[in-house]
């Protein structure tokens, strides 16, 4: 009798990782990123087979690392702080929303070229409107921060038709530049921290202050009655900002929903399938 598996017992097929489609999240730091867990959940739920890992890159080394990854057959990457503008420069083609933002958080191998997209704005808007149920047409929005994440969300927030969007940044000149770039898209103006105004229906913290251990402190009057405070950071990093907002009477949400929603947009670009997100957000919150 020939040696081999007993009839009816088929050996498990083991795909070597090198034969699977590879994806990474590139950042510095990147050890904290929950993207590998999120994409593993999406892959399981949609029946896709892929590998998704973290790639720590030193400042100034983004282009070399990304070139090496795609030359070795990598299919796509998420890009996080502080490389979103480097990723914009690296991409050989860009979607309209990435071009508008001037920042890229998603790279995809396409027909021998690398396409750059920005899914941050779509992710934030989906979390605000579909998950949190906010109606923002005619509202007053304060966006604090003018870095890579803020760049990605200004266009999609203006597309919701607010009465006013104020971009306030510690370094005023960056807010000025961002507001100027988006002026044709709607009622947007810039501010420094001393003159951001008062009575906003939605206040979004798009600064990285909490990651530097300096939680953002805003005067209570920025919140209109019934306002929502949203921190793009999530978990413990968002706590101090959100606690202060609650004390000022605002409803508060961290950025975990945005994280999952922007990841779902990236997954859709890469795999052509849109994963369900509510269960993934709930599972991550519970973990
Ligand atoms: P960048 O480094 O590009 O920008 C940082 C911004 O934070 C700048 O506007 C900077 O102001 C401001 N800032 C930094 N420290 C302070 C401080 N102590 N006080 C006030 N302002 C400060 O970062 P990103 O835009 O890429 O990311 C911003 C945040 O958003 C991060 O916490 C990131 O993790 C989070 N994020 C979350 C996402 C999600 O899906 N939930 C997606 C993308 C980002 P200045 O110009 O003066 O230096």
Note poorly predicted spans.
1-11
How many β-strands, per DSSP? 12
- Using the 3D structure, state the CATH architecture of the largest domain: 3-Layer(aba) Sandwich
Q: CATH topology of the largest domain, which one?
A: Rossmann fold
| Secondary-structure element pattern, one letter each | EHEHEHEHEEHEHEHEEEHEHH
Our estimate of the beta-strand percent is 15-25%
Query: Average pLDDT value?
Result: 93
The CATH homologous superfamily of the largest domain is termed NAD(P)-binding Rossmann-like Domain
What structural class is derived from the secondary structure elements?
alpha/beta
Q: Tell me the helix content.
A: 25-40%
Work out the radius of gyration. 21 Å
CATH domain class of the largest domain: Alpha Beta
Number of helices, counting only DSSP H or I runs of 4 residues or more: 10
For the record, the count of structural domains works out to 2
Multimer state = single chain
| Tertiary shape | globular
Q: Sheet bearing the most strands, described? A: 6 strands, mixed
Distance between the termini: 51 Å
Small ligands present: NADPH dihydro-nicotinamide-adenine-dinucleotide phosphate
Major sheet strand order: 2-1-3-5-6-4
Structure notes:
- With about 290 residues, the chain is an alpha/beta fold.
- It folds into 2 domains: about 1-120, Leucine Dehydrogenase, chain A, domain 1 (Rossmann fold, 3-Layer(aba) Sandwich), CATH 3.40.50; about 120-260, NAD(P)-binding Rossmann-like Domain (Rossmann fold, 3-Layer(aba) Sandwich).
- Helix content is about 35%, strand content about 20%.
- The chain has 10 helices and 12 strands.
- The protein has helices at about 35-45, 60-70, 85-90, 95-100, 120-130, 150-160, 170-180, 235-245, 255-270, 280-285; strands at about 20-25, 50-55, 75-80, 95, 105-110, 115, 140-145, 165-170, 190, 200-205, 225-230, 250-255.
- A 6-stranded mixed β-sheet has the order 2-1-3-5-6-4, sandwiched between helices. Strands 9-8-7-10-11-12 form a 6-stranded parallel β-sheet, with helices on both faces.
- The longest helix has 16 residues, at about 255-270.
- Residues about 1-10 have low confidence and may be disordered.
- The structure holds NADPH dihydro-nicotinamide-adenine-dinucleotide phosphate.
- The site of NADPH dihydro-nicotinamide-adenine-dinucleotide phosphate (NDP) has 30 residues, from helix 5, helix 6 and helix 9.
């Amino acid at each position: 009798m020939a040696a081999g598996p007993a009839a009816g017992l088929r050996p498990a097929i083991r795909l070597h990782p090198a034969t699977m489609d590879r994806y990474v999240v590139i950042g510095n730091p990147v050890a904290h990123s929950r993207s590998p867990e999120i994409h593993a959940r999406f892959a399981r739920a949609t029946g896709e087979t892929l590998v998704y890992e973290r790639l720590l890159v030193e400042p100034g080394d983004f282009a070399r690392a990304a070139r090496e990854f795609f030359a070795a057959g990598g299919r796509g990457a998420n890009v996080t702080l502080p490389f979103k503008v480097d990723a914009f420069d690296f991409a050989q083609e860009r979607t309209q929303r990435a071009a508008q933002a001037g920042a890229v958080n998603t790279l995809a191998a396409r027909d021998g070229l690398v396409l750059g997209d920005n899914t941050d704005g779509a992710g934030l808007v989906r979390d605000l409107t579909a998950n949190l149920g906010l109606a923002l047409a005619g509202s007053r929005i304060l966006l604090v921060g003018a870095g890579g994440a803020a760049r990605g969300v200004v266009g999609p927030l203006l597309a919701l038709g607010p009465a006013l969007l104020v971009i306030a940044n510690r370094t005023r000149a960056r807010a000025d530049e961002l507001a100027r770039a988006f002026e044709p898209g709607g009622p947007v103006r810039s501010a420094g921290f001393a003159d951001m105004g008062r009575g906003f229906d939605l206040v979004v913290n798009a600064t990285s202050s909490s990651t530097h251990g300096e939680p953002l402190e805003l005067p209570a009057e920025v919140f209109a009655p019934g306002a929502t405070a949203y921190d793009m950071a999530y978990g413990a990093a968002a706590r101090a900002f959100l606690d202060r907002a609650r004390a000022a009477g605002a409803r508060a949400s961290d950025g975990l929903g945005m994280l999952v929603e922007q990841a779902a947009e990236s997954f859709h670009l890469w795999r052509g399938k849109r994963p369900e997100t509510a269960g993934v957000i709930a599972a991550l919150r519970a973990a």
